[in-house]
Design a protein that fits this description.
There is one protein chain. With 502 residues, the chain is of the alpha+beta class. The chain has two domains: 44-341, tricorn interacting facor f3 domain (Immunoglobulin-like), CATH 2.60.40; 358-482, Neutral Protease Domain 2 (Neutral Protease, domain 2, Orthogonal Bundle), CATH 1.10.390.10. Helix content is 28%, strand content 28%. The strands form five sheets. It has an eight-stranded mixed β-sheet, with no helix packed on it. Strands 19-20-21-23-22 form a five-stranded mixed β-sheet, with helices on one face. The longest helix has 23 residues, at 415-437. The chain is globular and about 60 Å long. The termini are far apart.
């Protein structure tokens, strides 16, 4: 008997502990699953939601594992309620909050677009708490016209629900102990408003069975929840947020590229454009994987959305304005390339989108030229540069509106000035930087930057340190002249200028 007991004890000691990352691994390509093991402490969301059959209301609950990765203790934890932003137009109400299983008090702050959760004991750096939240969300409905630009809500048989859950705010350490604070910027309709640390998500959503969902992450299961509802479960790798976008009318096609499933969705009658978006997304995935570093996730998706002729990036999802599939079809390819580039510069490497929008937008915009150069040739790429960036920038200069690129969104006087400076002038800066470095060193710069900051958040100081590490004073002068300075010299018009799409 003693021998058997000892043998049993030995066997027990040899059983490996449960893998805490097992449920998230399906979202990562096999060669990147080890990233989960070295990720460090990140928030982990377990979310359950049900969307009403008319898509007018959502009810949800979440358990969020919240680690304190800052340098100072927290007496409270803040969650952003992004649907409450004016530009989103939703209405979110918290039903109750518990910390480590105990109900706690909370207050709405920052014009009700955030909730401050009280902690009975300060949370020391390196420690963690589990926060449980229940909420309801009223989903707005917008006009059913193609010119509508709405990031959140119902329009044209589509429902867009980014950040439909309370999202842990970013805590920014200050220059001295005790001076850190929660990020509570609200942004504007001009730029992105969401700023998030990388987190892991397991999302269970019960939807009307007629709905075709487009989401972040990878689908694990789908099953009947009732005769008229389907329950889905998705998981993600390290992601900035989770988006739920859907329509009962979506059709789709899927192809594999570089080990990733790429799926394109479209509305009835727009199959040609939908399949073109699939082709363009696959091309961008391959080009940017070769130039910047391999895309680590199992899935990538592109779909139309009620955002007119513009685009919007979410983790593993590029939403393209419905007008790009028809009236503005000529812009579908380059906008797809821009949004796919954000899967590297916004998703893998993140930045403050309100106070430093140029950090991701300028390189995502310039990525269009890299895409065109690879697929259409140098003449087509130069034509894009001249038509899309140089002409508008020269117009801004002529109107004496040229300003520095590295400014907060709200510093720009108009949407025209913001887009021309941050996107157009920013792209021209990167064209000058690439000319200075050469194509190979330019690619290597971004590969090294991705390796150093994958799944992290960067500031302009991080970017500038990487530039200075190249030990080329001319690059710093280019930065001072283009990014921090107001003016630039015109670029000669390319000759000849090819037809767009050739």
């Amino acid at each position: 008997m003693l021998t058997l007991l000892l043998l049993g004890a030995c066997v027990g000691r040899n059983v490996p502990p449960p893998d805490p990352m097992a449920r998230f691994r399906p979202a990562m390509k096999p060669e990147f699953q080890s990233d989960l093991d070295t990720l460090g402490p990140v928030p982990v969301y377990a979310i359950e939601v049900e969307v009403a059959p008319d898509n007018a209301e959502l009810r949800g609950s979440a358990r969020v594992h919240v680690p304190n990765a800052s340098k100072e203790p927290w007496t409270d934890v803040v969650f952003r309620l992004y649907p409450m932003l004016e530009q989103y137009g939703g209405y979110m109400q918290i039903q109750g909050i518990a910390v480590d299983g105990q109900p706690t008090t909370f207050i709405y702050i920052s014009d009700n677009n955030a909730v401050q959760v009280d902690l009975t004991t300060p949370l020391a750096p390196g420690d963690a708490v589990d926060v449980e939240i229940a909420w309801s969300l009223l989903i707005p409905t917008w006009p059913d016209v193609a010119t509508v630009y709405q990031l959140f809500g119902n329009s044209q048989d589509m429902t867009s629900l980014p950040l439909f859950y309370p999202s842990l705010a970013v805590f920014e350490d200050g220059p001295a102990p005790g001076t850190g604070s929660w990020w509570l910027e609200t942004g504007s309709v001009r730029g992105d408003a969401a700023f998030n640390v990388a987190a892991l998500f397991e999302v269970t959503a019960t939807l009307a069975s007629e709905q075709v969902p487009v989401t972040s992450g990878t689908l694990i299961t789908s099953s009947a929840a009732s005769p008229t509802q389907t329950r889905y479960v998705w998981v993600t790798g390290p992601s900035r947020e989770f988006v739920l976008h859907m329509s009962p009318r979506f059709q789709s096609a899927t192809q594999e590229a570089y080990g990733t499933r790429v799926t394109s969705y479209w509305m009835p009658g727009e199959e040609a454009a939908g399949r073109a978006a699939l082709r363009d997304a696959i091309g961008a995935l391959r080009i940017f994987s070769d130039r910047y570093g391999e895309y680590p996730f199992e899935d990538m998706r592109v779909a139309p959305a009620p955002i007119s002729f513009r685009g919007m990036e979410y983790p593993q999802v590029s939403l393209l304005g419905i007008q790009l599939y028809s009236t503005y079809r000529d812009n579908l390819e380059i906008l797809t390339a821009h949004e796919v580039a954000h899967q590297w510069w916004y998703q893998l490497v993140h930045n403050d989108p309100v106070n430093a929008p140029w950090l991701d937008e300028a390189i995502a915009e310039f990525s269009m030229k890299l895409y065109m150069d690879s697929l259409r040739g140098e003449d087509a790429a130069d034509f894009l540069l001249y038509q899309r960036w140089q002409i508008p920038v020269e117009g801004i200069q002529a109107d004496e509106l040229d300003v520095a690129i590295n400014q907060p969104v709200l510093n720009f006087a108009s949407g025209r000035q913001y887009e021309t400076i941050v996107y157009g002038k920013g792209a021209l800066f990167y064209d000058a930087m690439r000319d200075r470095l050469g194509d190979r060193r330019f690619n290597r710069f971004w590969q090294d930057f991705l390796t150093a900051h994958r799944y992290g958040i960067v500031t302009e100081q991080d970017w500038l340190a990487a530039v200075k590490a190249l030990d080329d004073p001319e690059l710093v002068r280019l930065y001072e002249r283009w990014v921090a300075g107001p003016r630039l010299s015109p670029t000669p018009a390319p000759s000849p200028t090819p037809e767009e799409g050739d």
